[in-house]
Structure formats: structure tokens, C-alpha cells
Write a structure and sequence with these properties.
Layout (H helix, E strand, L loop, with lengths): L2 H21 L4 H11 L3 H14 L4 H15 L4 H10 L4 H7 L8 H13 L3 H4 L3 H14 L3 H8 L2 H8 L1
Length: 166
């Protein structure tokens, strides 16, 4: 391919990447996937990604921190779900775990989960009085990506299991 044709394809790849970034922040891997889907050559994609990183338009660590905060504080997702969502977007597990540090802001992981439960369920969920309600809350938190130990600490449901044996 003549040099002029290569340059125009590189510019086209860069323009496409900028259009993708206009809509929302994206990870390096997301941009790579989209440019590959369109059919750009690996060389054009590599140069585009280097150029975007050089300008500060693509930064996977910043992207991971921002998305983890949105998912943790905003949507109330637990750590497992956040790591999964970041992985889906091409963020490594190490970067995802680093990003978790700021995912819950001042209130912290369990504070955010308590607020989520208070909004979704009646106050009885914290006392453990209604076992069916507690079971629903357990499923809700587990589906959101909280682990069993976190759910157990939030709901104090070990007592409900003992009560059911009497």
C-alpha cells in the first residue's frame, strides 16, 4: 500500500477512536476491539492507541478507577461484580483490584451496602425477624457482587438459621 494510503487509514482509525471517546470513556482494549471490528490494520490500531495514550485521552488505570467508583457508589455493586465488569472492558485483574480502593467513597463497602438494603427492603431485614425477607436480601446482595462473608456481616443471618431449627 502506498505511504499516502497508510497515512489516510491511520488518520481514519484515529478519527474513529475519537468518535468512540466522544460518547464515553473507554479502555484501551475496548477501542482496539472496535477498530478491529471495523477492519483497521493492526499497525494503524497500534499507532492510534499510542497516540491516544500520549495525549492522555486513554488511560486504563484512570478509566478503571472512575468506572469502579460509578459501579460501587452509584449502582451499589460489590467487589466481585466490579472486577467482573472491569474485566469485560479489558481491564486486568490487578488494575481492577487497585481501582476498588476508591470504589465506595467515604461511606465504605459495608456502609454503601447497608444504604442499598435500607432503600430496597424494610427495616426488618436488619433485625432478621422475617427469614424470607432476609433470604431475599441475601440473594440481592450476592447478585450484586458482595461475597458471603460481607452478606453475613450485614444481615447477621446466622441467628436466623439457628432459630429455624427450634
Amino acid at each position: 500500500m502506498p505511504e499516502e494510503g497508510k497515512n489516510s487509514r491511520r488518520e481514519a482509525a484515529y478519527e474513529k477512536a475519537l468518535r468512540l471517546l466522544e460518547r464515553r470513556a473507554r479502555s484501551n482494549a475496548e477501542i482496539r476491539r472496535r477498530l478491529e471490528q471495523v477492519g483497521f490494520a493492526d499497525e494503524a490500531i497500534e499507532q492510534t492507541l499510542q497516540r491516544l495514550e500520549g495525549c492522555g485521552l486513554v488511560d486504563d488505570q484512570r478509566f478503571a478507577r472512575e468506572l469502579a467508583r460509578i459501579l460501587g457508589e452509584g449502582r451499589g455493586y460489590g467487589p466481585r461484580r466490579i472486577i467482573f465488569e472491569l474485566g469485560r472492558r479489558g481491564i486486568s485483574r490487578e488494575q481492577a483490584e487497585e481501582a476498588l480502593a476508591g470504589a465506595y467513597g467515604e461511606e465504605g463497602l459495608l456502609g454503601r451496602a447497608r444504604r442499598l438494603l435500607a432503600k430496597k427492603f424494610s427495616p426488618e431485614v436488619f433485625s432478621g425477624g422475617d427469614r424470607r425477607l432476609v433470604a431475599r436480601a441475601q440473594r440481592f446482595l450476592l447478585a450484586r457482587g458482595y461475597n458471603f462473608e460481607q452478606v453475613k456481616e450485614l444481615l447477621h443471618f446466622e441467628n436466623t438459621f439457628e432459630d429455624s431449627e427450634q
